[in-house]
């Protein structure tokens, strides 16, 4: 008898950049497939999985507004980019035999379901992966905040944030080789030290609702499963 997963229902937060692989922009089908196979693996052990995906590989609202575009317009364009990513991920998941629904905060019936909280939970209970696209549906909110919000709404046990590094460091380990990694850290410390885990709105939301965050390296095969089994993978943010 193998050990039971530490978490029964998880929300996986992926940046749009996670889908680029080594490309400059866009979607690398091989990377989408690798992520899909990891999700298929945790589905197979009975973990209910929801995904929130960013759009930075296609369009960055903040970057565009910095160059003079209206911020709300730029953010809506970014939200639409997340729907493109959601569809790509859905296709990859279904190639791995995982039933998947794309659920969007901006209504577009021809390509995805509108977000209805109870229906989304029902999909999870039936063993479908639910990909939440279009962020919160509101400008000025990041997909990090969308991940925190959706995690609360579906009563997830944890947010799993997949990144390029294996946790939270005192500084960017890519540029500061002497940076050290936190095994675990409190929400307040993350906010006080301005550590770029998720934006402050998302961290505050998790803190107020005592929702733990696990930051792990998405590129290491098997990490997702190990983290879900409760092994010390990456960094844990709790009270």
Q: Could you characterize what this model shows?
A:
Helices cover 37% and strands 19% of the residues. The protein is an alpha/beta fold and 239 residues long. The protein has one domain: 3-Layer(aba) Sandwich (Carbamate kinase). Strands 4-3-5-2-1-6-10-11-9 form a nine-stranded mixed β-sheet, with helices on both faces. The longest helix has 25 residues. The chain is globular and about 50 Å long.
Summarize the structure.
The protein has 239 residues and is an alpha/beta fold. The chain has 8 helices and 11 strands.
What is the number of helical segments per DSSP (H or I, 4+ residues)? 8
Strand order of the largest sheet: 4-3-5-2-1-6-10-11-9
Secondary-structure element order, as H and E? EHEHHEEHEHEEEEHHEHE
Largest β sheet strand count, sense and barrel closure: 9 strands, mixed
List segments where confidence is low: pLDDT < 50 over at least 5 consecutive residues: none
| Secondary structure: number of strands | 11
The general outline is: globular
**How many individual domains?**
1
- Overall residue-averaged pLDDT value: 94
Structural class: alpha/beta
**CATH architecture descriptor name:** 3-Layer(aba) Sandwich
Helical proportion, percent range = 25-40%
Radius of gyration: 17 Å
The level-1 CATH class: Alpha Beta
Name the CATH homologous superfamily.
Acetylglutamate kinase-like
């Amino acid at each position: 008898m193998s050990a039971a997963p530490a978490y029964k229902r998880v929300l996986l937060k992926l940046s749009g950049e996670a889908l680029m692989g080594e490309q400059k922009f866009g979607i690398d089908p091989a990377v989408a497939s690798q992520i899909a196979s990891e999700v298929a693996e945790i589905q197979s052990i009975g973990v209910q999985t929801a995904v929130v995906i960013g759009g930075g590989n296609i369009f960055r609202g903040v970057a565009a507004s910095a160059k003079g575009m209206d911020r709300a317009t730029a953010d809506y364009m970014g939200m639409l980019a997340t729907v493109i990513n959601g569809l790509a991920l859905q296709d990859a998941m279904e190639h791995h035999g995982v039933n998947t629904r794309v659920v969007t905060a901006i209504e577009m019936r021809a390509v995805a379901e509108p977000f209805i909280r109870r229906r989304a939970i029902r999909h999870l209970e039936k063993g479908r992966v639910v990909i939440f696209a279009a962020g919160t549906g509101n400008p000025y909110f990041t997909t990090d905040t969308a991940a925190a919000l959706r995690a609360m709404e579906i009563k997830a046990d944890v947010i799993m944030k997949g990144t390029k590094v294996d946790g939270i460091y005192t500084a960017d380990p890519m540029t500061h080789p002497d940076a050290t990694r936190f095994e675990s850290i409190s929400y307040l410390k993350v906010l006080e030290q301005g550590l770029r885990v998720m934006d402050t709105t998302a961290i505050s939301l998790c803190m107020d609702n005592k929702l733990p965050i696990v930051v792990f390296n998405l590129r290491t095969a098997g990490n997702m499963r190990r983290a879900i089994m409760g092994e010390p993978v990456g960094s844990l943010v709790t009270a």
